[in-house]
Structure formats: C-alpha cells, structure tokens
Amino acid sequence: MTLDFKTTIMNEIKIFCPATIANLSCGFDVLGLCLETAGDEMIIRKSDIKGIRITKIVGANLPLETEKNVAGVSALAMLEAIETEFGFEIEIYKNIKAGSGIGSSAASSAGAVFGINELLGRPFTRKELVLFAMQGEKLASGNAHADNVAPALLGGFTLVRSSNPLDIIKIESPSELYATVVHPQIELKTSDARSVLKQTVSLKSAITQWGNVGGLIAGLYTKDYDLIGRSLHDEIVEPLRSVLIPGFDLIKQTALENGALGSGISGSGPSIFALSKGKETADKIAKAMSAVYDEMNLPYEIHVSKVNDEGIKIVSP
Amino acid sequence: MTLDFKTTIMNEIKIFCPATIANLSCGFDVLGLCLETAGDEMIIRKSDIKGIRITKIVGANLPLETEKNVAGVSALAMLEAIETEFGFEIEIYKNIKAGSGIGSSAASSAGAVFGINELLGRPFTRKELVLFAMQGEKLASGNAHADNVAPALLGGFTLVRSSNPLDIIKIESPSELYATVVHPQIELKTSDARSVLKQTVSLKSAITQWGNVGGLIAGLYTKDYDLIGRSLHDEIVEPLRSVLIPGFDLIKQTALENGALGSGISGSGPSIFALSKGKETADKIAKAMSAVYDEMNLPYEIHVSKVNDEGIKIVSP
A191-232, pLDDT tens digit by residue? Predict the structure, then answer.
C-alpha cells in the first residue's frame, strides 16, 4: 500500500493510552477490559527522516532504542506492512508502572500504532492494529498475546477467541460497570507469574471455567450484573498466582464484603481488580482496599474507573 | 406448598418432548440446544390414586416400574417438593431412541415434570423443573446433569454455568439456525463414552476451549453465524470420543464441505450434528450425510430441525 502524504494534514497527534485489565478471573488468556481514568499519554509526529525514533520518555526508565522499546517494535511491525515516505517520532509520558499488571507495555504498544495510523489517515482498522501491537507484547513478555492490546485499542471488553488466526470480539460494557484496581507497589514479572502455572488442569475445573466464561459473556450482553458477578471465578490460575501477591485474599474478601460483583488478579498481577455496579460502590471498595494496605504499611496506587468503551482516545488536535 | 385441585380444570395433557443436542463441540458439559422436529409424545393425567404410575410405553423397551423409569423418578422428585391430593399416570410414546445421543432420557424426564406442573397449575417455573428432571438423568447415566433437560424445558440454547448451585442461562437462537443430526444405528452408552475421557487436559487446550465457548455465546447474542461457526471446535473431547463413532471424520468433513457452520458429536454420541444457516443448507447436509452412511451400508436416522426456542410444547388440550 502506498499513501500520498501531501493529502494528509495532521502532522502530530497527542493520545491517551488506557490501562487495561486482562484475564478477568475466568477468562485467563482470552478476556480483557479497558479503563478510562488510568493511562499514559503519547505524542507522535511525522518526520522527514524515515523509520521510528523514540525521542522522549517521561515517568519511566525505559530504553530509547527503537528495537528495545515496545512502542518502537510495534511501530516497526506496522511500517513493514505499509509503505510511507515519512518516519515518526514518539514521545511517551508514562503513568502506568511497568510490571503493575494493568497493561503498561500494551498501552505503549497500542498507542504507537494507533497514533501512526491516525497520522497516515487510518489505513488500518483498530482490529488490524492489534496484530502490530502484539509485537510489542512479544518484546515485553516473550509472548505475542492480545489480552491487553485488544481492549486498549478497541475499548470495552474484548474476547480473544483465537490467537492464531487472530479472532477478537469486542463486547460493549454495561453502562454502570466500574472497576476498582489496586496496585501494591511490588514488581511481579510476567515471566515469574507464568512460571507458577501448571501445564495441565483437571477436566472438572476446566468445565467450571468455560461455564463461567460463557456466563460472563452472557452477562455482558444481557447487562445482568448479578450473572457477571456469579461468573467471576477462577479456580485454575488464581490459586497458583495469588500467593505471589501480598494480602490478596484479604483484599479480595474486602472487595466482596463491600459490594463488589467479583474480584481477582489483574493480568498476571500484582494489581487486584474488583468490578462493581455504579461508581459509589467502586469508590467504597477503593476506600476499603486502601485501608487494608494502609494497615499492612504496603505502598499502593489505586484507581476507580468506568469501563472505557472507546479505547485509546485522541487528546489533540 | 399445598394446592387445591378443585380449582384446576385440566385433567389430562398431551405434550411434545423434544430431542436435544448437548455439548455442541466447545461447550462440553455446559451447552445444549433444543430441536423442533424430533421428539417424543407423552400423555399425563391426574389420578385419584396418589403417586406416579407409568401406564404405557410405546416405541421402546423401557421399564414400567416408576422407580426404574427416568420419567417416574423425575416425577417422584417433583412430588417430594409439593403436596398434592392426586397422583399421576404417564404414557410415553418414544420416538427418540435410547443411547442415540440426542437426549432420549431427558425428553422423558423433562416431559414428566413439565406435564405434571401444567396439571397442577404451574407451581414451578420451567427453570425450577430442571432440578427435578435432573434426577431422571441421574438414573439414566449416574450423573444428575442438566445439559439435555435444560434445553428440553427452556428451549433455544442453554448454558449450564454451574451445576451446583444450578445456574442456567437461556439464550434465544438466531432465527435462521438449523441443525442436521444423523444417528448411526449403533448404541453407544453414555458410560462407555465417559470412560474414554481423560481427567486432565492441557492448559493450552482448555484456554482454546473457553475462548471458543465465549465466541459461541457472543455469536448467539449477536446473531453472527460466522462467529458461531468459528467457535464450534473441540480439541478436548471430540478427538477421544469420535473414534467410537463409525464414519465420524467423513461425516463431519462432508457436513463442512456442504456449508455447515460447524459439526461435532451430539451429546456423548453416536449422533453427529451439524449447524447451518437456513433450511436449504441443512437439507443439503442431510442428503450428503445420508450418502456417506448409505455407502457404508450403515443404517441411520436423520433429522433436520430449526432450533426450537420454546422447548416442550403442549399438543392438547
């Protein structure tokens, strides 16, 4: 594909790149949702020099070398699929901490390809961009997964029905669904969180899990908050991973006691999420979760956010 | 609960008890659908003699003793939950062969409790009746499962999110969805079909399976026939069970080549189902499946049916 740049006007774009919650209890490796109030910003501008340059990173100690940066790698994958006369400069303003479990690398990977796509006049759909952004995830974790980049790009809930070939279904969020996410300030590497997994599961647990995935998807389409709550269980991964997260059981129990529909590990942790109906309950849960970590003298960050049905947003122009 | 029979008028009811397809490839032990053109008939009438009597069985060699008959056992379970001055006589006209894999025992179990419930003035919802009918399934297979009795009673597609506590979600079928079901005339006992299962599965296959369950549910809600088709895969149970079914691979391949959205084992087999969009394709698949078994000199029965969104139907009065 060749594009004539003389017909495009935009030379620079500033975007908001949202944090995301992957897995969502029963939906290990297939489900994710997009947040509205937590995320990074990126500025991407056209350059006469071909190729991709990361020109600035604020808020995180991440490599500026294009080939070592998830945004750079994703952008390069995209430029392999389309011919341009231009190059692109990328500035990254990180708010999402690396290793937090709310899609830090995904926000940068998805943001880079989203921004470049806008500057190119949208040659690719948001779904098509997922494939490029997955290359950033591959750099970050060794695994080109879409659990976080899909909700970051598409918004709402996303189901990755299949990774190969990639088949992503976007599901709109019920309008009153809120997430509370607490991030205890310890770093848990995706690779460590992966190493505790067992490679086999009992058929019985697997059946329970796919029953719950079905229930969660049905609950989202029918906006049945109770069904969403009843489906938010994970007897396969959570028991293995939760031991790596300080205070997990107490935080989860506290969330449920304060009205959460469900609670579990965000991505591969250490962040813990709770879903609830309405902002009031989500705020109440945030307060109660904070009290638990305050009591433990464990530093944390906490976010309360509506599910973001749009995904990455243009801040300017 | 006590009911006054003098206020009810109906003394006898004739019902159609549909065949059902459980599992539906990815949805092992959780999904099922209800058929419209294949099923039994039952006549249930009030009697001055308390208790349940099976007074007639036509079309099958099944026990008349109440405690040994799935309809009898289901009805007894129901009468334990409600006090009545009357008893009930049950006549069963079987068309669905035992051991066919399209819910023969479920049709009788569900029919018995449905019919009695109607004669009692509907003290129970259809969902509540599922619990009683599951007792018939327990007698038939040793396992009180709801995969067939749920769709027989509720119609459409049903998801058994959880068996304990029972949590069933009914999903309306997309209007053009048809099933073709071929029953090779060999008997395959549920217990034999269960014995080939492995008690553990790989995490990778389990993830694939719950991704497909999610995709199938999403496809049903969005009436996306292609997504339904892409989701109809089973890499866990089908490879183990299909070897028990003569000609399975060829029948499935034939169905797909003739336009089926997907194809797999119905229940625990030996019946093989295919889903398709529109009756024309379903008929074409039936013809092609028939040719395969004709060529193999294997006797078979074949059904083409729209998905029955209503479940058990009253024939008269």
Answer: 788 889 999 999 999 999 999 999 999 999 999 999 999 999
Domain parsing of chain B, residue ranges: 5-172+310-316, 177-306
DSSP-derived 3-state class of residue A35: strand
Query: Regarding beta strands A87-93 and A200-202, do their DSSP bridges make them parallel or antiparallel, or are they unpaired?
Result: unpaired
What angle separates helix B126-141 from helix B104-119, to the nearest 10 degrees?
140
CATH topology of domain B5-172+310-316: Ribosomal Protein S5; domain 2 (3.30.230)
Check if B176 is active-site. no
In this predicted structure, the answer to whether residue A188 has a pLDDT above a threshold of 90 is no
Residue A244, Cβ density class (10 Å: 0-12 exposed, 13-18 middle, ≥19 buried): middle
**Closest CA–CA distance from residue A70 to any residue of chain B (Å):** 26
For residue B307, which of B182, B177, B149 has the smallest C-alpha distance? B177
pLDDT in tens, B260-293: 999 999 999 999 999 999 999 999 999 999 999 9
CATH 3.30.1330.10 holds for A177-306? no
CATH number of A5-173+309-316: 3.30.230.10
pLDDT at B1 over 70: no
Q: Given A161, A211, A230, which is nearest B211 (Cβ)?
A: A161
Query: Rounded distance, CA B36 to CA B34, Å?
Result: 7
Stretch 251-270 of chain B: residues touching chain A, C-beta under 8 Å: none
Fold: same for A5-173+309-316 and A177-306: no
The single residue of A137, A180, A254, A281 carrying the catalytic annotation is A137
